[in-house]
What does this fold into?
Amino acid sequence: MKAAVIQFKASTKKEDNLKKIVSYISKAAAKNATLCAFPEFMMFYTNSSQTSKQLASLAETINGTFVTTIAKAAKDNHIQVVGSFYEKSKKKDRVYDTSFVIDKSGKVISTYRKIHLYDALGFKESDKMISGSKIAKPVKTSIGKIGMMICYDLRFPEMSRSLAVAGSEVLIIPSAWVKGNMKEEHWITINKTRAIENGCYIIAPDQVGNIYCGRSLVVDPYGKILLDMKKKQGIGFVNIDLDIVKQTRKVLPLLKNRRTDVYPTLKA
It folds into this structure.
């Protein structure tokens, strides 16, 4: 099955980004993709001067205009969409960084609130955000059973392993990977590692421009990079073959060979 990966530079204006997103959905469907995946913070770019109160005032619920417009585009174009948005929370001046999966009938079939906030390397997302409290169960899509992660979650192997053990064949990871010393090397290495250690596809759409490095990736279960979008805005296409997941997990049975009976014996 064909998947589309969208890499673009989000502006600070929600309405402008939404128009771009709807256009990308239409273009992906026109090329016979059955699912298209967008990066983190696709709703709008939050610069350092934007206060937590200002961000919270622009956030929406899952039933708000932003997601419902995308859901309508998914239905109109008969395509599944994975994306993200700033979701309102009950905590004052804090939002969730939330991803969603919409099916081809326009129904939201899964949501995931980012659990690992990027409080590292000079950034502190917890100043504006609140973390989620659970990992979303893998969900069936046209390209296989997908597990959802967001950006900084990549650095925590426990999460991708949990999703793989729960049945994920593809991990989709909307990201806004910040530029910096060795950051692109980290990005590529970690995405490849998560694919190899779990015998699954990785689809990692990334923001480009502003403070982000681009390099949206698709990696196969054996660690081969199938798509690297470099610094270009636009759509990349890949074919996802679940037989390769099965074959890789058969010849390199890492999930089967785990020693979960032994690991807990090590105490700090």
